[in-house]
Inverse folding.
């Protein structure tokens, strides 16, 4: 069997469908943004910030993730945050991205919605023209806030619909089921937006949450979704609909102590469209290529398996068929090499 080298992974044109822009905030940026905005930090240097990354489950991760965002204040800050991620994407041959952002984590600190989305959008335009990285943005609602707050933020987004492709749902999943947001998601759909939701790994009531995503919300994709494997009929239905699942191996290893290699294989074997993603790469210290490499090195994934996972990402993306065709052609060239 041909070894999966770093060169092979680099050579694959890739799509990323599950990355939180706020989760790309590197410790070095926390320092530079704090300095620019006159904010005093409780850490002396970026190494101390990393040393304090003590997460073992979703709530302990989210606490650190939200606290760090305080340094993001101006449109320029959001531009720089997104542009840094797009540069990393370009370096790793990630050519297409559907990134998430969490507006409520900023408006709740007094940062206007427009400041956030305008900074990110400007970076998306520059990434496309300067770096050749194409992207479409997904607005995530925080599920541990109220449905009313989500509805208010959807109203704030309406003048910006041309800047969005879909809505998602993230943050603390415990006792915050998809059904809580059924009306907001129905309204988002009526505005022409695509729908996805986090079904994080091993959360309370997770199989029921996945069922609600399918039967009540009728999502266009599922973020994580590993626990669908516990239900035969859910697996069958996900495969039948061709629904994508955005799996994040290194993130899972941090949050649930499992790289989920066996589960990813099981999904592929059942015809489910699993994809590989980085989730919060600055925190989990792994961008797209490192996620693929760890699957090869630690779970024995082959070139063909990584090609399938990469192709799946373009297939379940929300690109037009014409753009998908363009990327399939690029990928086929590497597959034949
Ligand atoms: N799950 C839930 N909320 C999040 C995540 C995640 O993986 N990353 C950032 N916010
Ligand atoms: Zn996530």
């Amino acid at each position: 069997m041909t070894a999966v080298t770093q060169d092979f992974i680099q050579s694959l044109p890739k799509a990323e469908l599950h990355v939180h822009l706020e989760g790309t905030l590197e410790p070095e940026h926390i320092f530079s943004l704090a300095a620019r905005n006159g904010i005093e930090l409780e850490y002396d240097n970026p190494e101390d910030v990393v040393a304090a990354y003590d997460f073992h489950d979703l709530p302990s991760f989210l606490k650190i993730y939200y606290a760090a965002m305080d340094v993001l204040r101006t449109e320029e800050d959001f531009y720089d945050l997104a542009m840094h991620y797009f540069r990393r994407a370009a370096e790793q041959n990630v050519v297409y991205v559907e990134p998430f952002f969490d507006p409520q984590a900023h408006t709740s600190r007094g940062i206007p919605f427009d400041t956030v989305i305008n900074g990110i959008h400007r970076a998306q335009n520059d990434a496309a023209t300067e770096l050749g990285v194409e992207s479409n943005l997904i607005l995530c609602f925080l599920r541990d806030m109220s449905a009313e707050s989500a509805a208010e933020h959807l109203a704030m987004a309406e003048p910006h619909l041309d800047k969005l492709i879909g809505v998602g749902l993230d943050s603390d999943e415990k006792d915050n089921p998809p059904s809580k947001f059924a009306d907001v998601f129905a309204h988002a759909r009526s505005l022409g937006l695509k729908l996805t939701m986090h079904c994080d790994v091993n959360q309370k009531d997770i199989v029921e949450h996945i069922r609600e995503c399918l039967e009540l919300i009728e999502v266009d994709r599922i973020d994580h979704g590993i626990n669908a494997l516990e239900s035969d009929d859910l697996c069958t239905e996900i495969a039948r609909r061709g629904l994508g699942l955005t799996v994040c191996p290194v993130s899972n290893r941090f949050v649930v102590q499992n790289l989920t290699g066996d589960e990813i294989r099981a999904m592929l074997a059942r015809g489910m469209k699993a994809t590989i993603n980085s989730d919060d790469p600055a925190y989990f210290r792994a961008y797209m290529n490192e996620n693929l490499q760890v699957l090869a090195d630690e779970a024995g994934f082959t070139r063909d398996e990584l090609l399938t996972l990469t192709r799946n990402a373009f297939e379940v993306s929300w690109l037009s068929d014409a753009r998908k065709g363009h990327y399939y052609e690029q990928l086929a060239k590497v597959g034949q090499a």
In short: The pocket of hypoxanthine (ligand 1) is lined by residues 20, 23, 58, 65, 170-171, 198, 200, 251, 279-280 (CB under 6 Å). Residues 19-135 form one domain. The chain has a mean pLDDT of 97.
